[in-house]
Structure formats: structure tokens, C-alpha cells
From TrEMBL:
InterPro entries: ArsR-like_HTH, HTH_HxlR, WH-like_DNA-bd_sf, WH_DNA-bd_sf. One of its GO terms (molecular function) is DNA binding. It holds the Pfam family HxlR. This is Helix-turn-helix transcriptional regulator. Keywords: DNA-binding, Transcription, Transcription regulation. One of its GO terms (biological process) is regulation of DNA-templated transcription. Gene3D superfamilies: Winged helix-like DNA-binding domain superfamily/Winged helix DNA-binding domain.
Length: 113
């Protein structure tokens, strides 16, 4: 599977709108989890594998390659780390995570009752 690229067809957009390319990338298994974890600081492959629990080494390698080629993470002496773009992305999506936990999930549970 190729890396989602703005301007190229991606899931949800034949023209490859940048937001759709980003959402395609972030929607891949463990991509968001890796970004979320790396915001806490650099991490080795082994620590990422432990964090992601059920991820296979092949899938983790793929995700790391995609995120590196998308300029969201980089390899450092301490392991993998977010780039400045990766940190900016995290800071944009973190409030969405809070909203999902505190508003959407709560409302979802209340509606089921």
C-alpha cells in the first residue's frame, strides 16, 4: 500500500485533497497511537512495539516508514521522535481526543441507556 500523498488519489478523495490524504494516513492501524506515544518523548522500536501491544513487527516497520516519509517522525539517537510537524499535528488532534473522551463517548453511553 502506498503512502497517502496530497494531490494523489486517496481513500475518500479522488483528487487527493490534503486533509483527506492526512486522514487516510492517520486512519491506518496504529498510526495515531504511535504519534500519541511519541509526543511523550523519543521511543525505541521495542518500546513502541510494547506500547502498541498486538502490533506485528512488520506492521510497525511499515507505519514508522510511512510516518517518516510523511515528515511526522524521525529517527534520532534516542529512537523515534516526532518532528516539529508531528508535534504540531499532535497539538491539533489532542483536543479532539479530549472531546471524544469527555463529550462524544459520554453522550454515546447516555443515548444507549
Amino acid at each position: 500500500m502506498k503512502i497517502p500523498t496530497p494531490g494523489q488519489p486517496v481513500r475518500g478523495s479522488k483528487t487527493g485533497q490534503p486533509i483527506m490524504a492526512l486522514l487516510d494516513l492517520l486512519g491506518r492501524n496504529w498510526a495515531m497511537g504511535i504519534i500519541w506515544h511519541l509526543y511523550q518523548g523519543p521511543s525505541t522500536f521495542r518500546k513502541l512495539q510494547d506500547y502498541c501491544e498486538s502490533i506485528s513487527p512488520t506492521t510497525l516497520n511499515k507505519r514508522l516508514k510511512e510516518l517518516k516519509e510523511s515528515h511526522l517522525i524521525e529517527r534520532t539517537l534516542d529512537g523515534y521522535a516526532l518532528t516539529q510537524h508531528g508535534k504540531e499535528l499532535y497539538e491539533l488532534i489532542e483536543p479532539l481526543g479530549g472531546w471524544a473522551r469527555h463529550t462524544w463517548a459520554k453522550n454515546f453511553v447516555e443515548k444507549k441507556d
